[in-house]
Amino acid sequence: MKKILLSSLLLAALAISSCSKDDDGGTPEPVATCNDGILNGDETAVDCGGSCEPCEIAAEKDGIIAGQDDPDLDPEDLKGDVTANVCLTSDTVWTLNGPLSVKNGATLCIEPGTVIRATAGGTDVYVAIEQGAKIDARGTANSPITFTSNAGNPRSGDWGGILIIGKAPISGGGTATTEVVNLTYGGTDASDNSGVMTYVQALYTGARINGDKEFNGITFYGVGNATVVENVGVFFGDDDAFEWFGGTVNVRNAIAVNIKDDMFDWTQGWTGTATNLYGLREASYTAITEDPRGIEGDGNLDGQNPGDSGQSNPTINGLVLINGAPVSMADMIKVRRGSGLTLTNGYVAFANENAEASDFIDLLDGAGDANGANINMSLVGDAASGLDITDIKSVSGATINVTEGTTPTVDRNIFNWTGYSFE
């Protein structure tokens, strides 16, 4: 708890004011003393019967975190608007009890090895790095940063997730409002910098506000390419693991495990580069939404603005999508609504011995309002796993090469830092 210490000068002034004789030479009225060391409104800072010692005033919480010693920076009740540079230290476990919104000009530092446990059951529990703010979360392979649920029996959707919000371009230009918490994103600065996230994992995210609005694990809203995102993981998410709403941010080494909806999703003009994406559903995983996919790529927001300029056209170098679950996915890869994609070193497989090839509706669907001229894919389909590598819907102008093979194109060992044990 932050406390304010009255200065010696102020104490001296209080002592003179409270202890001096009246003008008529009378005896001063007795004053209360701060015998318990805490001023409560009925006490003064001075004991006229003895030495005048400083007393401490307890500061009250106001929902604003204005410094490292602010009472709102409370490990047992973390929430509020961050308006100054503060740090979550690794020497304690932090309990996130509500929105933690980092405001323009402020930086949220998170030390390596820090654990943040989010209160379960709330759509109002999340972390947002707003436009002009930064996150400085530099975990290491030996000391990753972990966001998770504080429930005794954690489940997907226990809490919201992490929102990074920048000023990079989105399709159609201008700005827009985030899907879940009504914050502004987008702009004209392709090199906008929202900070650093390395060796960060988020578990049990994806709280749902309603059927149309839900949090993802980590969401990038108009994030610029000066932002560093490397070695990140989302596990047991109730909606998408990673989603990009426009922007130019690049991502390296991202893993998504047991995600109820899409593993990797983009829309509204994302043009960054992703290197080494790894999506996996375990054999025991049975949760599912209406149309889960490994990749779902849209050019503009939900296909509402097909004439927008600056539609999505990302590059992916290194992709593994494995569905080991006994339930089907709508598509392993779907690129639509004006989105382009350049994909190299992709690998797609089914890994459940009880499954049939029909459990994939589509290996690759590039026909849904896609911009075929901007689709160029090269991937390996693991037919030995039961995958039908001929199940492809394409459009004129797209270049799609699928060859048969059994060797994943991304080394799963690069995700050992998460502690996840691959089956």
Automatic annotation (TrEMBL):
Residues 302-314 have a biased composition (Polar residues). Residues 1-22 form the signal peptide. This is Right handed beta helix region. It comes from the Bacteria. Keywords: Signal. Residues 291-314 are annotated as: Disordered. The keyword Nucleotide-binding does not apply.
